[in-house]
Design brief:
The structure is a single chain. The protein is an alpha+beta fold. The protein has a single domain, classed as Peptide Deformylase (Alpha-Beta Complex), CATH 3.90.45. The protein is built from three helices and seven strands. The strands form two sheets. A five-stranded antiparallel sheet has the order 1-2-3-6-7. The protein starts with 25 loop residues before the first helix and ends in a 23-residue tail after the last helix. Its cofactor is Fe(2+). Belongs to the polypeptide deformylase family.
């Protein structure tokens, strides 16, 4: 088991778009294992490579008892209306906020061996795939919020114990995504 440190909000790697994977080799398989071990230990519903400081387009997920990963994903979102739901993130420990996401998503990419993979999902899986693909693009879930909600979220982030600012924490429900952060 190789548990990696998860980068927290404020780390520039979280705002840097990740590079496509070019080599489907032993190093990529090790990265997928590290991501999986770290995600499961956290525990989380998903984890993107930039969250452990690796600037490659790879993420893992564990939703509805299904464990998987996707390399070099492309995302196709449904035309259906967005749905707002509680969302958390391992890079924002202990915090969750209402965040709009497409109800249905299809992500296409590859597995760690270079074989094509398609993930189709609704509800939590759709939310997870969108959240993790955003990480690979340098986008954070707080960027998806309306301005008023984002302002409240930024206040809670500044007041969180892990933010480095000495202020009492405002606690939001950790029940986002059924107790798991994305």
């Amino acid at each position: 088991m190789t548990i990696q440190s998860i980068r927290l909000f404020g780390d520039p790697v979280l705002r840097t778009p990740a590079e496509p994977v070019k080599d489907f080799d032993k190093e990529l398989r090790r990265l997928v294992k590290d991501l999986t071990d770290t995600m499961m230990d956290a525990p989380g519903a998903g984890l993107a490579a930039p969250q452990i400081g690796v600037g490659l387009r790879v993420f893992t997920y564990y939703v509805d008892d299904t464990l998987g990963h996707l390399v070099n994903p492309t995302l196709d979102l449904s035309e259906e209306q967005d749905e707002e739901g509680e969302e958390g993130c391992l890079s924002f420990p202990g915090l969750s906020f209402p965040t709009p996401r497409a109800i249905r998503a299809v992500a296409k990419g590859f597995d760690m061996h270079g074989e094509p993979v398609t993930i189709e999902g609704t509800d939590l899986l759709a939310r997870c795939v969108q959240h993790e693909t955003d990480h690979l693009d340098g986008v954070l879930f707080i960027d998806r919020m309306d301005p008023a909600q984002r302002k409240l979220a930024m206040r809670a982030i500044r007041e969180a114990e892990w933010s480095g600012l000495a202020a009492p924490a405002v606690r939001f429900s950790p029940h986002a995504t059924h107790g798991k952060a994305l």
